[in-house]
Amino acid sequence: MEHGKAPFHCRNARSSPGPPDSWAERDRARTQRCAFAAAGKDRRRPGETSAPRGFRGSDRGFQDLQRKVGSGENCSLRRSLKIRLTAALSRAFVFSIVVTAPAVRAAEPAGEREFSARCAAFYASSYQIPVELVEAIIQVESAWNPRAVSIKGAAGLMQLMPATAIRFGVRNRFDIEENIRGGVAYLAWLIQLFNGDLRLAVAAYQVGESQILSRGLAYSSPEVFHYVSRVAQLYRVMRQQTALRIAVPTNRTHNGVNNESVP
């Protein structure tokens, strides 16, 4: 080692380097302070802060690491301890965000279902397809849950895949209006592709148009048949309900009372 140059572990010390005789004494004092800290005693100077009490003894791995640092076994472990503590705090912060997210979602307006139905009716009318078909697909796909996510990665009310969302200009698949707009646009495109055959269009909505074009519905999996039958059953029920609503007179006077004024 060159004369007049401080050892590596003392070059970055906050205080200015003293005479060479004081270096060993300074190292002994530092080791003694670490040993006292590992034993549960506090020998720090006034104004110095100790480690947070919440981390003392909370993890056996942290205890072993503190014991090694206190005994002077390895000076580099001091930096490792800081890194592990920082990582633990980061994980706790991320976990708190994930845990509180459902509570924030629960505070949203309770009119999501009504707003979703209005969006479905508007875009179904815009693309000239039956609104009952759109509502049946939403019911089967997500049960009207705008935050639903499938195992394959489909998301939102109409369970759009990422590629389909990009294809039809949907930026946020969890946005109710964007998701319904993209899903209805895709469904209308499929109906036109299969010349108005709703069964083929619904099957293609579930597995993709390429599989139905190449194999047809007759050679599809039982899952596809089950999906199409569920959508068709809901579609028929909703069409009947719509027909009943239309058949009920809306402007009729009975016993001198106008029915339009009755809620």
Feature tags:
263 residues; Lysozyme; 2 domains; two-stranded antiparallel ribbon; elongated; disordered C terminus
Quick overview:
This protein has 263 residues and is mainly α. The chain contains 11 helices and 2 strands; from the N terminus they run αααααααααααββ.
Helix/strand structural class:
mainly alpha
Percent strand equals under 5%
H-E string: HHHHHHHHHHHEE
Number of strands: 2
The total number of structural domains is: 2
Strands side by side in the biggest sheet = 1-2
CATH class of the largest domain: Mainly Alpha
Flag low-confidence runs.
Answer: 5-17, 48-66, 85-108, 252-263
- The CATH level-2 architecture of the largest domain is identified as Orthogonal Bundle
**Overall helicity:** 55-70%
Q: Would you give the CATH topology of the largest domain?
A: Lysozyme
Distance between the termini: 96 Å
